[in-house]
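QA checklist item 7 of 12: single-chain prediction sanity check.
[x] sequence parsed
[x] length recorded as 727
[x] structure emitted
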Amino acid sequence: MRIMMFAAGGDLGGGKTHILSLAKELSKENDLRLVCFRIGEMSNEAPGLGIDTVAVDHKLGFAHARKVATEQAREFRPDIIHCHGSKANVLGIMARSSTGIPVITTVHSDPELDYMGAPLRNITYGNLNRIALRRMNYHVAVAGRMQDLLISRGFDPQKVFTVYNGMDFSDAVPPKEVKRDPDIIRIGIAARLNPVKDISTLIKAFAIAYEKDKRLRLSIAGSGEEEGKLKELAKTLGVEDVTTFEGWLSDIRGYFKTIDINVLCSLSETFPYSLLEGACERVPAIASNVGGIPYLIEHERTGLLFEAGDANTFAKHILRLAADDELRKTLADALLAKADEKFSLNRMRADQQAIYEKIKRLENAPSRYGAVLCGAYGKGNAGDDAILGAIIKSLRGIDQDLPIYVMSRKPMETRLHEHVGSFFTFDIFKLNSLLRKTKLFVSGGGTLIQDVTSTRSLLFYLYTLRAAHKAGVKVEMYGCGIGPVSSEKNRKRTARTLNDNVDIIALRDSISWDLLKEINVVKPEIILAADPAVSLPPVDMFTVRTAFEKAGIPADDKKIIFCIRPWEEFKDYSPIVKAAEYAYEKYGLTAVFLPMEYPRDVAIGKEVAAMIKTPAYASELHHSIEELRGMLASAELAVGMRLHSLIFAASLGTPIVGISYDVKVDSFIKDSGAKHLIRLEDLSADALIDNIDNAIKEGRGAGEETKKLLIELEKKNALCAKRLLDE
């Protein structure tokens, strides 16, 4: 590819390192030219790294810079212009207006905080930059949290990408070479001395810690407008004699060789190089829990985190590391291992290259391209949200570039969680607009076609099928349930709409198949598949353990998990209570109640858990889908009323016992090959205990067989979608 990079040119520290490292790596496989709109360190260093560089004298003014930007773009004819910094962003937009070349920018920091403490520059340069950012074709964030920040401010989730900073760790210092003075513990920070870095909190935390450990020394490497203020603060707090202001240092790696603990206390960050540079020298880190920092610093695993501005907790972390040589070594080694695996130069280059190639494909995509997803999404139900995640995962597996737009009750929440386009469920104008430019309509998961909720709900979902067909879009009902449809008038409406407007119906249960036959739905292709949620991947045990600990539940206990729900006919909780006590006394299983629909299921879980005399816990937290699935996977047995508690557990190999309040639960147990089911009207302590005994006797082997069957059935959903997209 031909890549042109625009850089403001005055970047120092991490910003300069990122731009030059990325340009150097990309130059190995692409034709790349770097245009620096200031003569300085960056423009002087770039040619020595083998980077084709053009330097613009900023003293000649903005008009000259604009002329050079446009001339360079026309001469070089890049596939894309990649901008870094506010001035480069503005000039990139201007070059695009003359050349039509797509423009992407890397957002290195929060644009609302870039000129913090400088109100005049914020009004001028800050506002120009924010306008330019809104007009960019694509954006790259240097951390996942920055990506989410941009999405929350209205940027298109499908045009915001993440590329973490990378370094070459091949020359990282070996453990045996780490030699430092045991009588002095040096706390070091390498950062600009400006308000967003919040170094005043560091000085306050250091002063608190120094009162208890006189071995501590503070080293501050950097320059900036707050230097005088910070020196005065150190004097006021009585740590002036043990605090050194090093000024700006070019040899950062050399600096970290002298440091025992690397700290960062920013109010806002993307993904700071100073943590990677410290990792190279095997320096443990303490950092504020902002931006992309937690992607590298996992609390207690690869470092220690504190909330920005919390000097007391910061001080406690300093004292803890200062007092424990072995902990410093353990955290430093773990930090380097993670940095080397996840944040190498090769990884950064490959990720950025993949983005360029995706942009090139998107710029040449056909006019009708993408999918609209319809379902009961954004309502707080873990089952529906899991269905959405699974469908998106499957569609991305078919076509990684496919634009996806989701109808949701909470569009912003859906954009942030799934990184797709989203609009309000009942925004018919937006729906019809998108249908005219997309290729596939997915009526996805759950039981949308039913009149138990209301006829109005049924009519709405039938309308979406007709609208999609009328717009010329292929229509798949994806891993769905059908019914009950009780009214004769509604049955006729349903049959007519499905026969005339749907290409493929992939069902998740056989009871729905029987209903379609009853009402004479014969024209669409109908197949028996499974709920989309069974295709979601396993959850790592660290996530599971953390989820239990957050909820105050012993992570190491063997568990029987109950997922019950409020229901009009479910008033007698004694069978659950007696079964939970029995499971503990006979099998040593602690009862845990998880809310599948938050907050609706919390109260009933707490109420029943309080009635149990043996150990029992009820989570009051709003767990993520990953946490719920992982917690259910870790149990010895799951007892569920909620359909998706059974689906989650069974798809991960956990034995299940279903309590059926609805035919969809009956059908799942039957179709999945699981055996243990009690209808709600037949629920008794004896019946539940008998099912628990049998399920535990069969063990996880039976659960693994159910898992295999479900996964094979579910694959049919995606195969149908692929056929329709390929047509």
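[x] summary fact logged: The chain has 27 helices and 26 strands.
[ ] second reviewer sign-off
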